[in-house]
């Protein structure tokens, strides 16, 4: 069944109104007609089965037949604190992160972040990243659209991460603690939220890592090879989801 995403305010009294790009896709590409059934989600985790009642000039109206909580959401909520990389790498990290089940993505301006963004750039980028998150959620059958926040400073990120049960900070110079051993310290079946910090191309500075260490966060190495920022994020998200049993059938 074709899937569409709408804002919660477009769902009222058992009726869904589809507008904008999704409506264009419904009418011009899929050529759906009254009577056709569709799947709709509102980005908050609820999925609807609905029948199209009418296809008008700028909107389609559908009637909800069934509503259910989506079962595609991981039990564990992983927030990715991603040191802002150059170019379009963030797009890739968001797309793959959403497919893998990330809960929220917080771009972080660190000491070695090269990209310079003013307020307007931040808003523009965040809108673009949110669209990527939305499209990825739709494509991979998630009914929840992970939030991508505006970039925050490293210090702000440290404060947000405080409420997580486990904070993992990936650091290529860490020689004592590895991911496997660190994850073993937690009750995998009980943990509900994890914060994952990944640096930008230049990595975290020694001082940033020490600040994390002083807060009791886990500084974690991934072995002897240095991974690109996007490889590190995508592979660690995969490992966490695998370890949490989120890749079982
Ligand atoms: N500037 C660093 C260097 O050249 O030595 C590399 C930074 S790496 C490209 C970007 C980020 O990926 C790092 O800040 C870290 O969070 C993560 N990362 C990459 N390889 C890692 C490893 N072997 N262990 C832990 N983290 C790693």
Characterize this entry briefly.
With 249 residues, the chain is of the alpha/beta class. The chain has helices spanning 20-29, 89-100, 119-139, 154-161, 179-184, 206-214, 229-243, and strands at 3-5, 11-12, 15-18, 37-41, 46-55, 60-69, 77-83, 104-109, 147-148, 152-153, 166-170, 193-198, 218-220.
Task: Write out key terms for the chains shown.
249 residues; alpha/beta; Ribosomal Protein L25, Chain P; Alpha/beta knot; 2 domains; 7-stranded parallel sheet; 6-stranded mixed sheet; 13 strands; 33% helix; binds S-adenosylmethionine
Q: Report strand %.
A: 25-35%
Let me know the number of strands: 13
- Under CATH, the topology of the largest domain is which? Alpha/beta knot
Bound molecules: S-adenosylmethionine
Question: What would you say this structure looks like, in words?
Answer:
The chain is an alpha/beta fold and 249 residues long. The protein has two domains: 3-69, Ribosomal Protein L25, Chain P, CATH 2.40.240.20; 77-243, SPOUT methyltransferase, trefoil knot domain (Alpha/beta knot, 3-Layer(aba) Sandwich). The chain has helices at 20-29, 89-100, 119-139, 154-161, 179-184, 206-214, 229-243, and strands at 3-5, 11-12, 15-18, 37-41, 46-55, 60-69, 77-83, 104-109, 147-148, 152-153, 166-170, 193-198, 218-220. The strands form two sheets. Strands 7, 8, 9, 10, 11, 12 and 13 form a seven-stranded parallel β-sheet that branches. Strands 1-4-5-6-3-2 form a six-stranded mixed β-sheet. α2 packs parallel to α3 (119-139). The longest helix is centred in the middle third of the chain and has 21 residues, at 119-139. The relative contact order is 0.15. Bound molecules: S-adenosylmethionine. The site of S-adenosylmethionine (SAM) has 18 residues, from α7.
């Amino acid at each position: 069944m074709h899937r569409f995403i709408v804002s919660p305010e477009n769902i009222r009294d058992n009726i869904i109104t589809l507008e904008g790009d999704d409506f264009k896709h419904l009418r011009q590409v899929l050529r759906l007609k009254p009577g056709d059934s569709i799947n709709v989600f509102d980005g908050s985790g609820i999925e609807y089965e609905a029948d199209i009642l009418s296809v008008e000039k700028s909107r389609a109206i559908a009637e909800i037949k069934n509503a259910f909580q989506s079962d595609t959401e991981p039990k564990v909520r992983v927030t990715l604190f991603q040191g802002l990389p150059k170019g379009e790498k963030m797009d890739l990290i968001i797309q793959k992160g959403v497919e893998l089940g990330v809960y929220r993505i917080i771009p972080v301006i660190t000491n070695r972040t090269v990209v310079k963004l003013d307020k307007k750039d931040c808003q523009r980028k965040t809108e673009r990243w949110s669209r990527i998150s939305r499209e990825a959620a739709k494509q991979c059958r998630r009914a929840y659209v992970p939030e991508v926040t505006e970039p925050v400073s490293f210090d702000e990120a440290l404060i947000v991460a405080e409420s997580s049960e486990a904070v993992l900070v990936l650091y290529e110079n860490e020689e004592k603690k590895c991911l496997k051993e660190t994850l073993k310290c937690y009750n995998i079946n009980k943990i509900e939220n994890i914060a994952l910090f990944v640096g930008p191309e230049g990595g975290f500075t020694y001082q940033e890592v020490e600040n994390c260490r002083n807060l009791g966060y886990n500084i974690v190495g991934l072995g002897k090879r240095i991974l690109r920022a996007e490889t590190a994020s995508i592979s660690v998200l995969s490992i966490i989801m695998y370890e949490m049993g989120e890749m079982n059938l």
